[in-house]
Design brief:
By secondary structure, the protein is of the alpha+beta class. It contains six helices and 17 strands. The protein is 20% helix and 30% strand.
Length: 236
């Protein structure tokens, strides 16, 4: 289940946290909309040049230039972390007591590199965020039934010890598989100690939903969905 607020969706279980703002954008949420939202207009925004990596960027202040990477972490209020997607899985993380939040871009390359696990380890090391105290929101992404990959992707995941259950053989095309990118990242979080009951998912397929961008469906005409998380300043 999700709640649609303007041009983005929120996870109901996370919406009830007074100091947390978050959202998973639809194709109707644009750059010009940030300042129109009474909650989001007060934030300073940070995004990355995403490169399908396991590069993690810690944000203490707004950078003077565009940085490269695929995960953002901050322990400071008033900063909005933004990840853009168009079939890849966006994941937001929040420590229950507000020690830190993170936004992570999980495509198949980042998932193969265990970027989400590395973010959890980094939050534990640098901010004292214990996995059992973490809350996670998984946004819309391409569903397994729509996400066909080749033998090289399957073999690469297997060599790295990732769960084979996230693949399903194509019923009619030899050497082709369907990849469940959502389940792959869910498994990585629980391996780290995140409690399954603290992982909340918007089970929407970007390829199937008309109000979401999909690179596989829309190709060069695809825009990007803007997914975000941040902490409100105390007393706001």
């Amino acid at each position: 289940m999700s709640s649609l607020r303007g041009g983005y969706r929120v996870v109901p279980q996370l919406e009830n946290i007074s100091w947390l703002v978050h959202g998973f954008g639809t194709k109707h949420w644009r750059e010009t909309d940030w300042n129109r939202d009474p909650h989001l207009g007060r934030f300073r925004r940070v995004h990355l040049r995403q490169v399908h990596s396991d590069i993690i960027v810690f944000i203490k202040r707004i950078p003077s230039r565009l940085l490269s990477g695929d995960a953002l972490i901050t322990g400071f209020s008033g900063i909005l972390l933004i990840i853009k997607t168009a079939d890849c899985l966006p994941v937001i993380l929040a420590e229950r007591e507000g020690k830190a939040v993170a936004a992570v871009h999980c495509g198949w390359r980042g998932t193969r590199k265990r970027v989400l696990q590395k973010v959890l380890y980094a939050m534990q090391k640098n901010s004292g965020c214990r996995p059992k105290d973490m809350l996670a929101g998984m946004g819309p992404c391409i569903a397994r039934e729509c996400y066909e990959v080749g033998k090289s992707v399957y073999s690469d995941f297997a060599r790295r010890g990732l769960h084979e259950r996230v693949f399903q053989e194509h019923p009619s095309r030899e050497g082709r598989y369907f990849l469940d990118i959502r389940e792959a990242n869910h498994a990585q979080m629980t391996e780290c100690g995140v409690l399954p009951e603290n992982i909340f998912s918007l089970n929407l397929c970007t390829h199937c939903e008309d109000d979401l961008w999909s690179y596989r469906r829309d190709r060069k005409s695809a825009g990007r969905l803007m997914n975000f998380v941040g902490m409100l300043p105390p007393g706001r």
